[in-house]
């Protein structure tokens, strides 16, 4: 089933010049980029986006980190996009992420784990709504997409 998911290249990915790497990997996999913008997340948006983590010991540090520099927010679309993108990111803790994943190849520290992607279809819908207006998300097909998705 075609799904949409939210991806953030977080402040450390942007600072380290890894935004292109993140986009390139998802693009090369065959997923479609449906929306993209650079945004400097404020405390209110950060708290809404990470509402599931309110009260956790790392919450204040997480808010400070995600608001420290601009991020690049994206919507990616394709078959099973939510789980496929999560696999590409690797385990939340880069120290446990497998080589070949973004975090496994470029990260070392759980507080600087480079990327975010929605963990379920329901979160994806909520997170995409938080970051994008409907008119900022494009519905389109890659030419020759049959060679990517079989459809
Ligand atoms: P993300 O995929 O954006 O979702 C929640 C974020 O919280 C996660 O990536 C990490 O950036 C952060 N996080 C999760 N667990 C910890 C932890 N134990 N210590 C610090 N940060 C964490």
Summarize this structure as a short list of keywords or feature phrases.
single chain; 151 residues; alpha+beta; Alpha-Beta Plaits; 4-stranded antiparallel beta sheet; 8 helices; 4 strands; 40% helix; globular; binds adenosine-3',5'-cyclic-monophosphate
> How many distinct helices?
8
Bound molecules: adenosine-3',5'-cyclic-monophosphate
Structural class: alpha+beta
Task: Provide the residue-averaged pLDDT.
Answer: 97
Could you give a short account of the major beta sheet? 4 strands, antiparallel
Q: What is the N-to-C order of secondary-structure elements (H for helix, E for strand)? A: EHHEHHEHHEHH
Number of strands: 4
Strand fraction equals 15-25%
**CATH class bucket:** Alpha Beta
* CATH level-4 homologous superfamily: Nucleoside diphosphate kinase-like domain
State the share of residues found in helices, binned by percent: 25-40%
| Low-confidence region ranges | none
Indicate the CATH architecture: 2-Layer Sandwich
Strand order of the largest sheet: 2-3-1-4
Global Rg:
15 Å
In angstroms, what separates the terminal alpha carbons? 11 Å
CATH topology: Alpha-Beta Plaits
Q: Tell the overall outline.
A: globular
Overall structural domain count: 1
